[in-house]
């Protein structure tokens, strides 16, 4: 279960994605060179991280310029359109059976704040627009899992925790390396039965 951070009763990692503008943090490096974080061949980099912006002035993160759920959706759509042919090619060229991150995968960086079931325990900080953007990303993950299963592409959402980056600030309770190690430990364990699921950096399933 998530541990309490320095400002009770907050849950550890409520802030969602934590990469800074330079790409450091739980999702930053994998966003720039997805497969490199998993040790994959460059021509088969199969992981795509789609991120929605952080809440503007509402939490430990600040929104990027021109942000908003619509802007994030457009960016994610454009990124997926560019990556999808490569993902399909990687899956088709793989000798592996079933689905896995070492074959081809879309990993969306979500947040526990996007969990509808856990709203009562996390609503001490409303940040409603941020919650909605992450809930929409979770829906996208489920739809992607159904849409691309036949193409051999695994799809999952991951909550990286509240990470100590420029966006997460030093008030966050999760060091970058701990979040990254956690995510890179979780991803290789995902298989066909996990496609369309929502995970934390610590390897725990999160309810939608």
Reconstruct the topology from this structure.
Elements: H1 28-32, E1 47-48, H2 69-92, E2 105-109, H3 119-122, H4 128-148, E3 154-159, H5 176-186, E4 197-200
Parallel strand pairs: 1-2, 2-3, 3-4
Helix pairs in contact: 2-4
Give unreliable regions as ranges.
Answer: 1-69
Which radius of gyration do the C-alpha atoms yield?
A: 16 Å
Q: What is the mean predicted local confidence, pLDDT?
A: 74
User: What assembly state would you assign to the polypeptide chains in this entry?
Assistant: single chain
Q: Give me the CATH superfamily.
A: NAD(P)-binding Rossmann-like Domain
CATH architecture: 3-Layer(aba) Sandwich
Please state the structural category. alpha/beta
Give the N-terminus to C-terminus distance in angstroms.
16 Å
Widest sheet: strand order? 1-2-3-4
According to DSSP, the number of beta strands is 4
Quick one: biggest sheet? 4 strands, parallel
Which range does the strand content fall in? 5-15%
Which fold name fills CATH's third level, the topology?
Rossmann fold
**Cα shape:** globular
CATH class: Alpha Beta
Approximately how much helix is present in the residues?
A: 25-40%
Discrete helix count: 5
- Supply the number of structural domains: 1
H/E order of the elements? HEHEHHEHE
């Amino acid at each position: 279960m998530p541990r309490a951070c320095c400002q009770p009763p907050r849950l550890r990692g409520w802030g969602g994605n934590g990469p800074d503008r330079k790409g450091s943090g739980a999702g930053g490096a994998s966003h720039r060179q997805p497969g490199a974080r998993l040790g994959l061949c460059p021509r088969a980099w199969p992981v795509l991280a789609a991120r929605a912006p952080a809440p503007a002035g509402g939490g430990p993160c600040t929104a990027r310029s021109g942000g908003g759920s619509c802007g994030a959706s457009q960016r994610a759509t454009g990124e997926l359109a560019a990556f999808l042919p490569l993902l399909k090619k990687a899956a088709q060229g793989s000798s592996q059976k079933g689905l896995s991150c070492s074959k081809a995968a879309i990993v969306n960086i979500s947040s526990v704040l996007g969990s509808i079931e856990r709203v009562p325990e996390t609503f001490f900080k409303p940040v409603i627009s941020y919650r909605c953007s992450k809930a929409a990303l979770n829906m996208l993950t489920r739809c992607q899992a159904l849409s691309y299963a036949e193409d051999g592409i695994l799809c999952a959402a991951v909550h990286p925790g509240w990470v100590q980056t420029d966006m997460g600030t030093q008030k966050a309770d999760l060091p970058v390396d701990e979040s990254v190690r956690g995510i890179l430990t979780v991803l290789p364990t995902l298989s066909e039965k996990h496609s369309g699921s929502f995970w934390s950096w610590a390897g725990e399933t999160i309810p939608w």
